[in-house]
Design goal:
Chain A: It comes from Amycolatopsis viridis. Chain A: InterPro entries: CoA_trans_fam_I (IPR004165), NagB/RpiA_transferase-like (IPR037171). The structure holds 2 protein chains of 2 kinds. By secondary structure, chain A is of the alpha/beta class. Helix content of chain A is 34%, strand content 24%. In chain A, the strands form 2 sheets. In chain A, strands 1, 2, 3, 4, 8, 9, 10, 11 and 12 form a 9-stranded mixed sheet that branches. Chain A is globular, with a radius of gyration of 19 Å. Chain B is an alpha/beta fold. In chain B, 29% of the residues lie in helices and 18% in strands. Chain B has 9 helices and 12 strands. The longest helix of chain B is centred in the N-terminal third of the chain and has 12 residues. Chains A and B meet through β3, α4 and α5 of A and α3, β8, α4, α5 and α6 of B.
């Protein structure tokens, strides 16, 4: 059985301009941020990004990588709105398809099931239908009801981040919620998984039951080991969201000059440089926090 | 009790929205609704189910702003929440940025959606919630900018929109209450326009009308929202919100 481990740089060459990429996780939770940072360093552009969005949307928009956003929402959870996303919307910089969260999941499910649509009640009577003029309804052949015919959301590539994987791409989450990472994997032509730790297959069930194995190697194209690779989003139980850093990100994103400084400090180097800069950020931030208390 | 604050009256009004709901999931957004559903379960609606805000169903009563410390009785990851939304055993209290006469609500964007003047959070789950299970609303600051003649974008489906969209949208459409810092509303059975149910103690009907950007249905004498009992006040002050977070949402 062929190993599927990749470096971050190798992964980055697999995504090409114009692709439709689905990004797993939810809001500011278990996002494949190291993979996203690798895309920020690559020349890729003109992406269609399909996501239950968090800070990856803001980062990709700020870097000018996004042509179209397909989303159920974009939120930093503890901070309601991502400032870069807000700016991109209010300047009309990106095309959008905004769906009800459940419609979004249904679109992924349709793609995973190789159907062109699935019926759903959500969306009826709302402006989701007028803001997405291509959406159609479908009459039930069995009852006097019409439903939204949610079109499939097929992906060229899916990016997800999990707690553990093995070298051949069996994928394990250890936190409270799988989110929809298995659907992204099944809706995509290729799925790249980053993880906190690559372990031998025989160790996957150490301290974890089999139902934590979220999806199997048959859906996985490549595996990248990226410790703290979801930072600054949460990756429970390995770590919680880095609220101080997220607040720093959101504050910088509101001001072009501050953003230049943020990008220089955190985004101009490689992943190791990023993690080192984050550690320095906390070394400097810690004494200030103590003096406030 | 006569010393209840406005925030405490709002807690009671939010709790009352869930009276009689039985064994369903109560999802509350905002501090005062969160206190309200926990108060309802601790008193007159013991069968309600509540989540810890993440992926577990938890029994017990715990303070807002603190981690849930009750007994875990179920797993509720987001995928199961969607299944539950579509199944219908849920009553959500959401916070609209705009709400209009027929209960259409907007949390998506102000202005034109193609290029909004102000991007808000997006429609989130509002379209699905409103056509599949009971929904109520909480508006902590009742003012004409929130109570508008017509919302810029329909995220949550109102009565006129549901009627126009047909049976699929109408079948499970069930808007229950709108609670604000001034008053409590429901919707008139005929036509589905917003109806004033009660005003909080110290608030006049005229004040409510002046703060509302459309005509309200008002039938006869409008009663006052009920006050908390002594036991309810104890629960709010000592157990559910000892840090007084409710006063940050609705100042005294």
């Amino acid at each position: 059985m062929a190993g599927k481990t990749l470096t971050l740089d190798e992964f980055a060459t697999r995504v090409t301009s114009g692709m439709t990429i689905g990004i797993g996780g939810w809001g500011s939770r278990r996002k494949p941020m190291a993979l996203v940072r690798a895309l920020l360093r690559s020349p890729v552009t003109d992406l269609t990004v399909v996501t239950l969005g968090g800070p990856e949307v803001g980062l990709l928009c700020a870097a000018g990588k996004v042509r179209k956003l397909v989303y159920g929402f974009v939120s930093l959870d503890s901070i309601p709105l991502d400032p870069h996303f807000r700016a991109a919307r209010e300047s009309g910089a990106v095309e959008t398809a905004e769906y009800d969260e459940g419609m979004f999941v249904t679109g992924l499910r349709a793609a995973a099931n190789r159907l062109s649509f699935l019926p759903i009640r959500a969306g009826l009577g709302s402006d989701v239908l007028t803001m997405n003029p291509g959406l159609r309804t479908v009459a039930s052949p069995y009852a006097d009801e019409e439903y939204v015919a949610m079109p499939a959301l097929p992906l060229d590539v899916a990016l997800v981040h999990v707690n553990r994987a093995d070298p051949v791409g069996n994928v394990q989450y250890l936190g409270p919620d799988p989110y929809f990472d298995d659907l992204y994997a099944m809706a995509a032509g290729a799925c790249y998984v980053s993880c906190e730790e690559i372990v031998p297959t025989g160790r996957l069930l150490d301290h974890a039951p089999a139902q934590t194995l979220l999806f199997s190697r048959m859906y996985t194209t490549g595996v990248v080991e990226t410790p703290r690779g979801a930072h600054f989003t949460s990756c429970v139980p390995d770590y919680d969201r880095d609220e101080a850093f997220q607040a720093h990100y959101a504050a910088a994103a509101k001001d072009p000059e501050a953003w230049q400084g943020f990008a220089r400090t955190f985004l101009d180097g490689g992943e190791q440089d990023y993690q080192a800069a984050v550690a320095r950020f906390h070394d400097h931030a810690a004494p200030r926090q103590e003096s406030r208390a | 009790m006569t010393d209840a604050t406005r925030a405490e009256v709002c807690v009671i009004a939010c709790a009352e929205a869930f009276r009689g709901d039985g064994e369903i999931l109560a999802s509350a957004f905002g501090t005062i609704p969160a206190i309200g559903v926990r108060l309802a379960r601790a008193t007159f609606a013991p069968d309600l189910l509540l989540t810890d805000g993440e992926a577990q169903l938890v029994r017990g009563t715990w303070a807002v702003g603190a981690p849930a410390d009750g007994v875990v009785e179920g797993w509720s990851p987001f995928r199961r929440i969607f299944d539950l939304v579509w199944h219908g055993k849920r009553h959500a209290m959401m916070i609209p940025v705009q709400i209009d006469r027929y209960g259409n609500t907007n949390i998506s964007a102000l202005g034109d959606h193609a290029r909004p003047k102000v991007q808000l959070i997006g429609v989130r789950g509002a379209p699905g919630n409103t056509v599949t299970h009971p929904v109520s609303y909480w508006v902590p600051k009742h003012a004409p900018r929130a109570f508008v003649p017509r919302v810029d974008l329909v995220s949550g489906v109102g009565h006129d929109s549901a009627a126009a969209a047909g049976t699929g949208a109408r079948r499970y459409h069930d808007l229950r209450r709108v609670v604000t810092n001034l008053a409590v509303f429901d919707f008139a059975p005929e036509g589905g326009a917003m109806r004033l149910r009660s005003v909080h103690p110290g608030v006049t009907v005229d004040e409510v009308c002046a703060a509302t950007g459309f005509p309200l249905v008002i039938e006869g004498e409008v009663p006052e929202t009920r006050l908390p009992t002594e036991e309810e006040l104890r629960l709010i002050r000592d157990v559910l919100d000892p840090r007084g977070l409710r006063d940050e949402e609705v100042p005294a």
